[in-house]
Design brief:
- The chain is α/β, with parallel strands linked by helices.
- It has eleven helices and eight strands.
- The chain has two domains: 163 residues, Rossmann fold (3-Layer(aba) Sandwich), CATH 3.40.50; 94 residues, Pantoate-beta-alanine ligase, C-terminal domain (Pantoate--beta-alanine Ligase, Chain: A,domain 2).
- The strands form two sheets. The chain has a five-stranded parallel sheet, sandwiched between helices. A three-stranded antiparallel sheet has the order 6-7-8.
- The protein is globular and about 55 Å long.
- Bound molecules: pantoate.
- Pantoate binds next to strand 1 and helix 7.
């Protein structure tokens, strides 16, 4: 992969990179379309990264189907698929990790210890291998996006980080490979997550600025669905992930993690004044 990327650079081609863990869906395809628009060559990585799973069962049941993913990508204008084996990314004796302090400890970081260290480490290895001009990430994983932006700045990567809005199912549920683990019934019920975030957004647009009120509104709406188990609902600053008590002039992010059928789903919405 490194020599292919080097050749692309020698040919003066700009490289757009989309890192994935496979089980590709419309959300990934949107990232690929964005990369395609912005670069001469598109590289997609498919690697279920063991270092970012703190729960072994979660890693084992993560959907994997490289043939189906490759078939899906054949219909898109993807130049290279990089699907390494775990031993290529983490060779025998591997012991160097990237840890982004500060914005990885709360929200997902609190529920999934070690998760962001695993993500930062693998993205760093992939960036070093490919050295892309741009890398595209989804807004759904808002904390991951903020962390990658920070890591890129702190470690001096020359890669531009591009964010793409969350792609949703017709009922509003954020697209995720985990949705396939839900029963049809739970998949319908889980629509309450986005519906409740939209309620908070409406209240914000009508003038509500108190974090506690907005969070309570989301909690109440989700709790009406008895199948939902809330992990957290938080109002934070989109770049630092620090809690926000009262929303001022800058945008804020309401992030939610909720379990349905034992499957942990995350979603978020940015609250910002309409122009
Ligand atoms: O968002 C994901 O799918 C993963 O966290 C990523 C960025 C591919 C790293 O393994």
């Amino acid at each position: 992969m490194a020599s292919i990327a080097r050749k692309l650079r020698r040919e003066n081609k700009t490289v757009g990179f989309v890192p994935t863990m496979g089980a590709l869906h419309e959300g990934h395809l949107e990232l690929i379309r964005q990369a395609r628009q912005m670069s001469d060559a598109v590289i997609v990585s498919i690697f279920v990264n063991p270092a970012q799973f703190n729960d072994k069962k979660d890693l084992e049941r993560y959907p994997r189907d490289l043939a189906a993913d490759a078939a899906m990508l054949a219909e898109y204008d993807v130049d290279h698929i990089f699907a390494p084996e775990p031993g290529e990314i983490y060779p025998e004796g591997f012991s160097t990790y990237v840890y982004v302090e500060g914005l990885t400890e709360n929200l997902e970081g609190a529920s999934r210890p070690g998760h962001f260290r695993g993500v930062a480490t693998v993205v760093s290895i992939l960036f070093n291998t490919i050295r892309p001009d741009i890398a595209v990430f989804g807004q759904k994983d808002a904390q991951q996006l903020a962390m990658i932006r920070k890591m890129t700045r702190d470690l001096g990567y020359e890669t531009e980080i591009v964010a793409v809005p969350t792609v949703r199912e017709p009922n509003g549920l954020a697209r995720s490979s985990r949705n396939d683990l839900l029963s049809l019934e739970a998949r319908e019920k889980a629509a309450v997550i986005f519906a409740s975030l939209r309620e908070a957004e409406e209240a914000y647009q009508k003038g509500e600025r108190k974090g506690a009120k907005l969070v309570e509104m989301v909690e109440n709406a989700i709790s009406e669905e008895s199948a939902a188990e809330i992990d957290y609902i938080s109002l934070v600053a989109p770049d630092t992930l620090e809690p926000v008590d009262t929303i001022g002039d800058t945008p804020a992010l309401i992030a939610a993690a909720v379990r349905f059928d034992g499957v942990r789903l995350i979603d978020n919405i940015i609250l910002e004044k309409k122009q």
